[in-house]
Design goal:
FAD/NAD(P)-binding domain; 7-stranded mixed sheet; binds flavin-adenine dinucleotide; FAD-dependent monooxygenase; FAD-dep_Monooxygenase_BioMet; monooxygenase activity; oxidoreductase; FAD/NAD-bd_sf
């Protein structure tokens, strides 16, 4: 499959895939509908699983450098009582690395910096005119009459993916999760605080530090789809969270109405039958949009990109290479979509007795050690990509080469 690859969508998933394919020596074009790559959203949490995936393209350590959480943190009630105490070292020990919170713009810049100039074309709304097959290339239409033939098309066009609708017209598409979200990035409050996630009745607030001295705060609340504040979203946050524990009031005081992002959460709770058709591979939110309750949507998009490039690097015909990609990714992401939905039901629980029982159980479990609380991330955050990575030391690399031959995951000859 060593022909021109076209990536539709310049989000985190599309850009990661483009870097991985470029590093295999494949010509790549990224087509992005927006006029610029300025990402929507504030912060994003990258867990060790996606950091290991980024190691494959040499960017993992650049993300790890941005880790800001040290020491204490955990889960609280709106009055400030701690339900669960966690510390950064225990989390890192369990999953083989720290959780890193970074600004989305920093991640997009990092990915774009690894692509040759001219790879990304913005202001282009692309569609798949022909998905192709083993005998003929796929064809991508650019909306202005121009078409591009491609050996591989990566559909990374997000949760409302038009490519997905075209390839799988019988799939029901995204469903509303029942809750809405707000996000802000503001300067850190004057008084020190421990990173926290606070669970109330049908509402949640999280505060996490960024390396650059600012903080990323996010909130969720049960709400009808499409509901918007009658005045402004900062006022809505004050109504929901203004009387919650420190540092939440201070963060709201530092927030401007224009600085608040609000998004209703939809997810693909019905899995697709496959993540590919012909020479087209779906990836990221286009393939498996999930609730943000495990903070894994972007992490899984990054994993997808690395695994797709791995399968596309071989000499197999597209039908078999992409069937391998579906086989690797569909069961894993389906499982995480369902786990995220279960976590969503727990965090947005609204009934007073239900919340009381939930809080007692969560606090009781945590008394037996942080390991039990973190167990929900087993099999997610401890994932490793297929094959060798830049992070592997030379001895590991030599051992893997002896087992597999002289090609590493990037298709490079590691003997040179
Ligand atoms: C509140 C909230 C918090 C979150 N927090 C986290 C977190 O901490 N960690 C985490 O891992 N994930 C998190 N996520 C999920 C994460 O944001 C997404 O899973 C991730 O951004 C998906 O990336 P993507 O590249 O698949 O899609 P997107 O980022 O949606 O990118 C799709 C791109 O395709 C473009 N596009 C669409 N149609 C076309 C077209 N026809 N032609 C050309 N371009 C097109 C769009 O303009 C867009 O740029 C969160 C989500 C929410 C809502």
């Amino acid at each position: 499959m060593q022909q021109h690859a076209v990536v539709i969508g310049g989000g985190i998933g599309g850009l990661t895939t483009a870097v991985a394919l470029h590093q295999q020596g494949r010509p790549v074009t990224v087509l992005e509908r927006a006029a610029s790559l300025a990402p929507v959203g504030a912060g994003i949490g990258l867990a060790p699983n996606s950091q290991r995936a980024l190691d494959v393209i040499g960017l993992g350590d650049r993300v790890r450098e941005l880790a800001a959480w040290q020491g204490d943190g955990g889960m609280r009630t709106p009055s400030g009582r701690w339900l669960v105490r966690l510390d950064a070292a225990a989390v890192a020990a369990r999953f083989g690395g720290a959780l890193v919170l970074l600004h989305r713009a920093a991640l997009v810049d990092l990915l774009v910096s690894a692509l040759p100039e001219g790879t990304v074309r913005t202001g282009v709304t692309a569609s798949v005119a022909d998905p192709g097959d083993d005998e003929r290339p796929a064809v991508v239409a650019l909306g202005d009459g121009e078409t591009i033939e491609a050996g591989l098309v990566v559909a990374a066009d997000g949760i409302h993916s038009a490519v997905r609708r075209g390839l799988f017209p019988d799939h029901p598409g995204p469903e509303y999760s029942g809750f809405t979200t707000w996000r802000v990035v503001v300067p850190a409050p004057d008084r020190p605080f421990a990173p926290h996630e606070t669970w109330g009745r049908g509402r949640l607030w999280g505060t996490q530090p960024l390396k650059d001295g600012r903080i990323y705060a996010y909130a969720m609340a049960v709400a009808p789809a499409g509901d918007r504040a009658p005045d402004d979203e900062r006022a809505e946050l004050l109504r929901h969270f203004g009387d919650w524990h420190d540092p939440i009031p201070a963060i709201l005081a530092a927030t401007s109405p224009e600085g608040v992002l609000r998004h209703d959460v939809h997810h693909l709770i019905t899995p697709l039958p496959a993540f590919h058709r012909g020479r087209v591979a779906l990836l990221g939110d286009a393939a498996h949009a999930m609730e943000p309750t495990l903070a894994q949507g972007g992490n899984q998009a990054i994993e997808d990109g690395i695994v797709l490039a791995h399968h596309a690097a071989g000499r197999l015909p597209p039908s078999r290479a992409l069937a391998g990609y579906t086989a690797d990714r569909l069961p894993r992401t389906t499982d995480i979509v369902r786990k995220a939905a279960r976590a969503g039901r727990l965090t947005t629980m609204s009934s007073r007795p239900g919340v009381a029982v939930r809080d007692v159980l969560v606090a009781a479990v945590s008394r037996f050690g942080p390991g039990l609380v973190l167990r929900g991330f087993d099999g997610i955050a401890d994932w490793s990509p297929p094959g060798a990575t830049y992070a592997a030391d030379r001895r590991d690399l030599r051992e893997q080469r002896e087992l597999r031959g002289p090609q590493d995951l990037r298709g490079h000859d590691v003997t040179k």
